[in-house]
Amino acid sequence: MQRSQAISAFIGHESALDQIRGTARFIDDLPEVAGSLHLAPVCSPIAHGRLISIDAEQALGMPGVQALIQAGDLNGPNEIANMAGDEPILAQHEVSYAGQVVALVAARTHREALAAAAKVKLHIEVLPSVLSIEQAMEARAWITPPVLLERGDTDGAMAKAAHRLKAQRWIGGQEHFYLEGQIAYAIPEEQDAMLVHSSTQHPGEMQHWIAHALDVPAHRVRVLCRRMGGGFGGKETQSGQIAVWAAVAAKRLACPVKMRLDRDDDFKITGKRHPFRVRYEVGFDDEGRLLALDAELASDCGFSADLSIPVNERALFHVDNAYYLESLRIRSYRCRTNKQSNTAFRGFGGPQGMYVIESAIGDVARYLGEDALHIRL
Q1: Least confident residue range of 2-6, 122-126, 230-234
Q2: pTM of this prediction?
Q3: Domain residue ranges in the chain
């Protein structure tokens, strides 16, 4: 039998030489078509409010500024074509988080667009906001209804356990911090077609979102991504907003349009890893065997669903990690808050779920004065 040469063989990364030489081209390195414009976002400064008016008079008079695009200027529906259909392309009557994009400024250069966007005045009537998991739980503000997962007789097993411990833990969110920020470059083509260069993990989804926003068949939209400067989940759905903004502006203005978020705007606008509050009670015997687990997972989903449903489902299914528990009960709460819509991040909810059982095992080990490895085995 011929021995395989693939195992342990050195296979260089496809773009390694170009990257170490500095010749690998990312979207911002692509030559710009003559007449291209640049977009900058106008963001809400408050978490929740009623949008009364937009005053762009000063901004429109600044050097290089060509247009201000608002929700009323869109050719198609003011709706991101995500799973839930609960997110506008541009906020229109209501703003739902600090950083939500209300309008787009188009100018000849990136710096001119940013300078003008800073001069747009928003008149917003402040409304009550929900800014924490505790507030959302108290208000019963959910993205989707709570979910209960149960196996065995949790109450009975807990009652019979020789020892019981309760705990509450907090798991923070996390910024993706990809080196290449969110960026898209949209170029109108003939017959209502659109070419969009997008730094994305999901070109097919970008095509769907853009076609929906432009109100054209999907085959009229081409999305290209030669390479990304990092993504980690942050460019799975979140890249769609930037791609859609560039595309709707390109169609509206009939010219190529690039949108590149500065890092501070990227932080304000895009979602993060889901923060969780977890509560649990664990029942166990003198040897440290876990007999029952009763847990509650509450996550901060932000203002819209995005990928919060599958992220929370995965957290739910990963609570027992590599162990089998005969009796467990897990409640999952998907909290709606006035923050960015949290999204995919490496692990996709799994780490938050696994933390519950691993934390409980650590508690049991400390209580019994045992090595946690002994409890795990």
Answers
A1: 2-6
A2: 0.95
A3: 30-126+176-269, 133-174+272-376
